[in-house]
Design a protein that fits this description.
Strand order of the largest sheet: 1-2-4-3
Largest sheet: 4 strands, mixed
Bound molecules: zinc ion
Number of domains: 1
Number of helices: 4
Length: about 140
């Protein structure tokens, strides 16, 4: 995730956060995962990276969102539902990090291990969320 600068990021408004959490509440979640325990921030730098959502070990309690769906600084609530599966994918990684601990998580993030050990669970929940929300599969 190149160039995330916390100073450029903006916390979701209460209305947007509520719309996102409400979409996530309709999704099957891994046991113990609480989306409301996280902070969600718009990160303009993410517009260049092609991801709708990103979580990073450096910010274990935050998920950064690309402001793709903003229209004049406002986000239609249904747009937050469309990115909820990508957000859940990232929350699963956050859960893996707290389960495994920093050292084991970083080891598992090495490219081949990541594809075998971390991504399948995150993708499974992302797909389930698409189904739970009635969205077309990405
Ligand atoms: Zn992933």
């Amino acid at each position: 995730m190149p160039g995330i600068n916390e100073d450029d990021c903006q916390f979701l408004s209460l209305r947007d956060r509520t719309a996102l959490l409400s979409a996530l509440s309709l999704c099957r979640l891994p046991a113990g995962l609480e989306p409301a325990a996280f902070m969600y921030r718009w990160a303009p730098a993410m517009l260049d990276c092609g991801y709708a959502a990103k979580w990073r070990p450096a910010y274990p309690d935050s998920v950064f969102l690309a402001p793709l769906c903003m229209v004049r600084g406002q986000v239609p609530p249904y747009m937050l539902a469309t990115i909820a599966p990508a957000v859940l994918h990232e929350l699963v990684h956050a859960g893996q990090y707290s389960r495994l601990g920093p050292a084991a998580y970083l080891l598992c993030s090495l490219p081949l291990l990541n594809a075998a050990l971390l991504e399948p669970e995150a993708r499974r929940y992302e797909k389930l969320a698409e189904r739970d929300l009635g969205l077309p599969s990405a």
